[in-house]
Known about the structure:
The protein has 2 domains: 5-153 and 293-365, D-Maltodextrin-Binding Protein, domain 2 (3-Layer(aba) Sandwich), CATH 3.40.190; 156-291 and 371-408, Periplasmic binding protein-like II (D-Maltodextrin-Binding Protein, domain 2). Helix 1 (55-71) packs antiparallel against helix 10 (324-334) and helix 6 packs across helix 7 (223-236). Strands 1, 2, 3, 4, 7, 14, 15 and 16 form an 8-stranded mixed beta sheet that branches. The protein has a 4-stranded mixed beta sheet with strand order 9-12-8-13. Strands 5-6 form a two-stranded antiparallel ribbon. The two termini are 35 Å apart. 36% of the residues lie in helices and 17% in strands. The model is unreliable at 1-40 (pLDDT under 50). Strand 10 (211-212) and strand 11 form a beta hairpin. It has 13 helices and 16 strands. By secondary structure, the protein is an alpha/beta fold.
Amino acid sequence: xxxxxxxxxxxxxxxxxxxAGCASVEEDEPESDDSDGVGGDDAAGEAxxxxxxxxxxLVIVEEAIETFNxxxxxxxxxxxxxxxxxxxxxxxxxxxxxxxxxxxxDWMGDFVESQFVADRQGDIGIDLDQFTDAGREAVEYExxxxxxPIGAETVGxxxxxxxxxxxxxxxxxxxxxxxxxxxxxxxxxLSYPLDPYFYSAYAHxxxxxxxxxxxxxxxxxxEETLDGFRFVLDELEPLIPDDPDYxxxxxVFSEGNAPFAINGPWEFGGVDFDLSVTTLPAxxxxxxxxxxxxxxxxxxxxxxxxxxRAEAAHEFADWYTTNLDILERLAEDQGIIPVHEDLAGxxxxxxxxxxxxESAANGFAMPASPLMNQxxxxxxxxxxxxxxxDMSLEDAMAEAEDRIRGNWD
Length: 409
């Protein structure tokens, strides 16, 4: 199963959301890893929920569905779907698919314009004011409300407590430890996927940006953005394994072969050593600003087709996104940052969440504009051309901007 945020590295293909074909669902059935929920004539309403979750979060969601079904007259069927985006963009245009699904807010603009999700502003049974500004803004798009916010995610600096006594308080402290381990056989200083989502923190660090969704402007060739890319290539890349892909990088840390990892709360839930999270490493006086995502319980277009199924989906989404016990467990077990006002910013939250919260506080919400879908792929290709030495960084990002504008046209 593909981890939720791991799909960010495949956003080069996300533009296909708007042009996905309407092939028969019977010819391409969703691959389901598991299912929960009960149906039957006694249910007041039944609804389907799709998601693609890490192992730890999957347990929480499945138990939540079981609890909801046992305590209400509704029946929610949950399915962990392989290749969730592909399945949704095939099923929804064909009139199939779930009433609700979980994913980050960055799909919002594309899915709204493709009419894959439904505006349910008048049907939501809870007050959106109980969520933080970031949470509310994530589910709103051009005057409509297309889901409910669950929690926030971003990247931070993991450290293996068996190799690092305490979090580094400066760039020099981080680099000294990383360089020390990087010189040992079979060890590396850092685990860090070279993916646009992950190095966005450094592209933003000096004031650069990929895409300004308000002005619909690109900033890949701005000197501030290039300086951030140079920092990654010059200072961080020498500390990581030769293979920059996600799986190879994540494995190095999870196997205990690196003291540090830059990654998110969806990863490393099953490691057999103690770990902690702190803010991203940076030169003195600079602050990395990673992209952040809000996990959303989306209302799929199918929610408009049947009043009883719609009621069941709404009741579950309302309950799940406001159940403080569930939200606390997501925070404690998975490092998902609460966006419910009763929990957001609480000092009692576990250290894991505090570390991600500090990182998120410095970050930027991923643009929800459909135009952003044409940005990820060219950025990744351009960066890799510079990484491999096939092109200069300046030329690679100039070419990336040309590709993006051509795709927009």
